[in-house]
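Notebook entry, cofactor series.
This is the third protein in the set we're modelling with a bound small molecule. For this one the ligand is zinc ion. I'm keeping the input format identical across the series so the outputs can be compared line by line later. Sequence and SMILES below, as received.
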Amino acid sequence: MIPFLCPVCGLPLTLNQSVYQCEKRHSYDLSRFHYVNLIRSSKKIHGDNVEMVKARTRFLRSQAYQPLKAKLTELIQAENPSAVLDSGCGEGYYTELCETLENCECFGVDLSKEALKQAGRSCPSVRFAAASVFELPLPDHSLDLIWSCFAPLALRENARVLKDQGKLIVVGPGPRHLWDLKKVIYDTPYLNPQETLSSPDFELIDEQTLSYTIQLDTAQQIQDLFTMTPYYYKTSIQDKQKLEALSQLSTEVEFNLRTFQKKSA
Ligand SMILES: C[S@@+](CC[C@H](N)C(=O)[O-])C[C@H]1O[C@@H](n2cnc3c(N)ncnc32)[C@H](O)[C@@H]1O
Ligand SMILES: [Zn+2]
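Returned structure with ligand:
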């Protein structure tokens, strides 16, 4: 069994009666929400707050992104992995696909304890830790596959914990993602720039695009989707008001699913 590592000394942690402990007796409680807090830094770092988590949970429950979840599940099942991580798992919407993987050790890591409270409820077979994706509490060369959906990417750290030839699936917005929503807010919307990910540790082996139209039927749904986007923080009050006036919106969504393979040492 792959252990979590102690954030203080790096030794493996063993779980005994809801307490993770290393040989040096550093200990961490497994919370009643089924995650352990292994955040290493003493700095005040945190992931998404309660409002962001609530908005995303409500929106994802509407199943608007179910086709993306199905596509990601298909890609991951095809790898037949025995150890996986959802990196920046949020409240576990995509982590839920772990329930379809047989004989596989599954992990979820996120900085947001609010998000993990939700994730722990919906994915009982997954081990969750509050930690940074840049300092994963997992051993070197332990995982077959990592996925990262709309979360910060830590390529170096991912390469450390993946086995040679291990896979990293990165899901992000395609050029036309939320095009019709952007048309409401901006006079001249722009296509999302497509970042090239180059890393000495990985090579790109597959790239797929998924696009379809979603229909939002309430003002709440529109606001929830907007809250999930980076535009929420960058948009002026006047432009936000244009969206608040709507109670229905049909918008194109477009996702990019890129698979990278870790190069052998
Ligand atoms: C846009 S959300 C995506 C969540 C989930 N993957 C999904 O698609 O539903 C980004 C997530 O990354 C988390 N996050 C941000 N910085 C992080 C870091 N350095 N380490 C771990 N998680 C981080 C946030 O707390 C948030 O849950
Ligand atoms: Zn320790």
